[in-house]
């Protein structure tokens, strides 16, 4: 599936979950079936992986997802990131944190 179609499917899933509480419950309890029933798209996960959907619609809460720890062996740094690290400069953590938790930074006061 090309990227544009994937984005359309994701928008459809999210908007349907916002509009329809029953679909949202179904999405949380059996995400693959709910997505396939709604879109007709086939969900094929890599072996050993599962799809987890968390309902984060409660506006009284701030949600933070803890990503899996990256496999250092698989990380490829850009030339500029390598230069920064080689020169003893800043690490790539600020960019990583900002990309993973964009909303959280609005609530952190240092």
TrEMBL record:
Superkingdom of the source species: Bacteria
Any GO molecular function: transition metal ion binding
Name of the protein in its database record: TOMM propeptide domain-containing protein
Organism lineage string: Bacteria, Pseudomonadati, Bacteroidota, Flavobacteriia, Flavobacteriales
């Amino acid at each position: 599936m090309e990227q544009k179609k994937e984005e359309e499917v994701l928008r459809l899933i999210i908007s349907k979950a916002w509009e329809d509480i029953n679909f949202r419950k179904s999405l949380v309890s059996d995400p693959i079936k709910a997505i396939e029933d709604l879109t007709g798209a086939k969900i094929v996960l890599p072996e050993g992986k599962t799809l987890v959907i968390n309902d984060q619609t409660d506006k009284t809460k701030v949600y933070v997802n803890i990503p899996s720890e990256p496999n250092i062996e698989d990380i490829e740094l850009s030339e500029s990131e390598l230069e920064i690290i080689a020169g003893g400069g800043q690490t790539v953590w600020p960019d990583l944190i900002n990309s993973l938790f964009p909303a959280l930074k609005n609530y952190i006061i240092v």
